[in-house]
Amino acid sequence: MLTVNGLTAGYGGSQVLHGVSLHVAAGETVVVLGPNGHGKTTLLRAISGLLRPTAGTVELDGVNLTHLPTEAIVAAGVVHIPQGDLPFPEMTVLENLLVGAYRPEAWAERHERLERVFALFPRLAERRKQLARSLSGGERRMLALGRGLMSKARVLMIDEPSLGLAPLVIEQVYNTIHEIKRSGLSILLVDENADHVAGLADRMYLLEAGTLVREGPAEELLRDQALLAAYLG
Ligand SMILES: Nc1ncnc2c1ncn2[C@@H]1O[C@H](COP(=O)(O)OP(=O)(O)O)[C@@H](O)[C@H]1O
Ligand SMILES: [Mg+2]
């Protein structure tokens, strides 16, 4: 469904991604595992058009999205949940969620979508009138995920959702991603911790210095402790 072919991207003169090829099938959860600084965020940004790839293609169901504006890539259903905090701390939880549904086709379904998000995140329902900045780190991460679900996503790209969270909260966040997976959405998640994605990932890639060095069923790669230790340190 999502097919990335030979994607190359970087910043200024320095190339970070060196011809990355991957795919995500319908309903599949694919994880790209890689150590800090190896290009995970750059990969998601290059797919979502926030960063212009210098070579390669991004296709969704055979439609070429490469070089389209980010806006059009979102409209096609590729939705990127960035790492780190929310951009709208001075808006309420509800307003932040509605921003996720700003495109006309999602706006028309915003009530049903809100209900789904609130069912998935009861804490957000309780806090719908609070300013986003008053939420805890874990709740803000939930809000970022919820906002992604308010759009008409076909592939949800999630950047290191554990970043900066306490272990217990990390577990809650990944449990929620599990729920999202069960709803049938395709997921492309990048992470640097193999433990987080055990039981969640269907298939995995290992990213090393901007190149995918391994690909396989998640169970198989996660079983190979020697490989993971050598690779993630
Ligand atoms: N905005 C930027 N400008 C210049 N270099 C960057 C920028 N963002 C990331 N980089 C560099 O690109 C490389 C990959 O970074 P990144 O994709 O953020 O890795 P990861 O998400 O795996 O930690 C790193 O060497 C980083 O320093
Ligand atoms: Mg990153």
Largest sheet: 6 strands, mixed
Principal-axes geometry comes out as: globular
Q: What is the CA-CA span between the terminal residues? A: 33 Å
- Using only C-alpha atoms, the radius of gyration works out to 17 Å
Q: Determine the structural class based on helices, strands and strand pairing.
A: alpha/beta
Give the spatial strand order of the biggest sheet. Answer: 6-7-8-3-9-10
Strand coverage percent: 25-35%
Give the averaged pLDDT, no decimals.
94
Q: Which ranges are low-confidence, i.e. pLDDT below 50, for 5 or more consecutive residues?
A: none
Strands, total number: 10
Write out key terms for the chains shown.
single chain, 233 residues, six-stranded mixed β-sheet, binds adenosine-5'-diphosphate, alpha/beta
Structure, described:
This protein is an alpha/beta fold. It has 11 helices and 10 strands. The chain has helices at residues 40-48, 70-76, 93-99, 104-107, 110-120, 122-126, 137-150, 167-182, 194-197, 218-223, 225-232, and strands at residues 2-11, 14-24, 29-33, 55-60, 63-64, 78-81, 155-159, 186-191, 203-208, 211-217. It has a 6-stranded mixed β-sheet, with helices on both faces. Strands 2-1-4-5 form a 4-stranded antiparallel β-sheet, covered by helices on one side. Strand 4 and strand 5 (63-64) form a beta hairpin. Helix 3 packs parallel to helix 7 (137-150). The longest helix is centred in the last third of the chain and has 16 residues, at 167-182. The radius of gyration is 17 Å and the shape is globular. The chain starts with a strand and ends with a helix. The mean pLDDT is 94. Adenosine-5'-diphosphate (ADP) binds next to helix 1.
